[in-house]
Amino acid sequence: MSGETGGGTIELTQAQWEAFLAGLYERDDQLHRRVPGAEYPPEEEVDAYVLSGHAEALRSAEVDGDVWGTLADIEEEAGNEEEAWARIVAFYLDRGCVLVRVQGTEEPEEWLLADGLAGRLGLLEAAKGP
Question: Which of 40, 90, 92, 120 could form a disulfide with 112 if both were Cys (CB 3.0 to 4.6 A apart)?
């Protein structure tokens, strides 16, 4: 995975994003990285919908992130969805979250994850590259 952590943003290709999701499992309402060679029950598989339950906020073609509801939760206002998302991103980045942006998609695919979660799932290390 390539990307940068400066400014709290990690850039992934669509293939890297899919590989990231495939490398996760959920157990007892917590996300973890799969250990190569270990067996995992099908109910522990993670897709975008499962990950959405762990995200602070998201804008995705696959999962409804409720941008307007999130904006109301942080007590902000905006004139359009782009401005709303920009305010949400700024709010969460100021609180130490990480923005994961998937490149090469027709519609925006952006996820805000807590820094601790992103680190535990290997996103921060992977984004630093070799």
Answer: 92
